[in-house]
Amino acid sequence: MAADHLPIVETPEAKLATLTWRSEADTEAFARALAAAPGLRDAFLALHGDLGAGKTTFVRHLLRALGIAGRIKSPTYAVVEPHEAPDGLLIFHFDFYRFSDPREWEDAGFRDIFAGPGLKLAEWPDNAAGRLPPADLTLRIDTMTDDTRTVNLRAGTPRGKALLDAAAA
Ligand SMILES: Nc1ncnc2c1ncn2[C@@H]1O[C@H](COP(=O)(O)OP(=O)(O)O)[C@@H](O)[C@H]1O
Ligand SMILES: [Mg+2]
After folding, report:
1. How far is ligand 1, taken at its centre, from the CA of residue 143, in Å?
2. What is the Cα–Cα distance from 12 to 27, expressed in whole angstroms?
3. Does the structure show a pLDDT above 50 at 1?
4. Residue range(s) defining the domain that contains residue 135
5. 21-65, pLDDT tens digit by residue?
6. Whether 163 contacts 155, CB under 8 Å
7. I want to staple 81 with a disulfide (CB 3.0 to 4.6 A). Which of 69, 75, 102, 146 is the partner?
8. Which residues have C-beta under 5 Å from ligand 2, the single-atom ion?
9. How far is residue 86's CA from residue 33's CA, in Å, rounded to a whole number?
């Protein structure tokens, strides 16, 4: 892929990599690489970063790369926006920015979603900490003063490591 990156660091518990996204084109290139990676289908990706960092932008490029057509709504008010790719892949895009009521976790069926098949993407996962399963891949996006994005990637499972190898190598 086009973006620069530092060498991938591997520890027994995790695998880490750092990317620079110089523009949204680099976000798109990474999203495309990830979409092509085997193992993404049932993965859980946690997306950290301040408001405006580019979490939703990344999700939109990933959804496009997976074949989702039409307008892609941001789930800020609904907490979750479900999608189905042309090949039948279910994708659940969560935004926990406004999530605060623990009862909603059960009532809205989030537990079932995370226990079931499909790709799960979550913005503001810290707001649902303690309920979410461990993420396969965690992205932390930071906006630099020159508007580029520094992206710290952490693979926390074998599935996440395979995704990182495929998309950030
Ligand atoms: N890689 C990038 N480089 C430059 N600008 C970006 C990049 N990714 C996103 N942006 C811009 O940042 C703004 C906020 O992005 P958004 O995805 O809504 O952030 P978040 O979901 O993290 O709050 C958008 O206007 C988008 O065009
Ligand atoms: Mg967002």
Report:
1. 9
2. 28
3. no
4. 9-155
5. 999 999 999 999 999 998 999 999 999 999 999 999 999 999 999
6. yes
7. 75
8. 55-56, 123
9. 18
- What number does the ligand 1 atom closest to the CA of 27 have? 1
Ligand 1 pocket residues where CB is under 6 Å: 21, 23-24, 26-27, 49, 51-57, 123, 147, 149
Res 17 pLDDT > 90: yes
Residues 6+ apart with CB under 8 A from 111: 105, 131
The CATH number of the domain holding residue 51 is 3.40.50.300
Q: Is residue 161 part of a domain?
A: no
Residue 62 lies in a domain: yes
80 occurs within a structural domain = yes
Ligand 1 atom nearest residue 23's Cα: 3
Pocket test for ligand 1, best of 57, 59, 150 (most atoms within 8 A of CB): 57
DSSP label at residue 38: T
Ligand 1, atom 16: closest residue by C-alpha: 54
Q: Residue 33 is encoded by which pair of tokens?
A: 């690489």
Cα(124)–Cα(32) distance, rounded to whole angstroms? 23
pLDDT digits (tens, 9 = 90+) for 87-146: 999 999 999 999 988 888 988 999 999 999 999 999 999 999 999 999 999 999 999 999
Domain count of the fold of the chain: 1
User: Per the domain annotation, does 160 fall within a domain?
Assistant: no
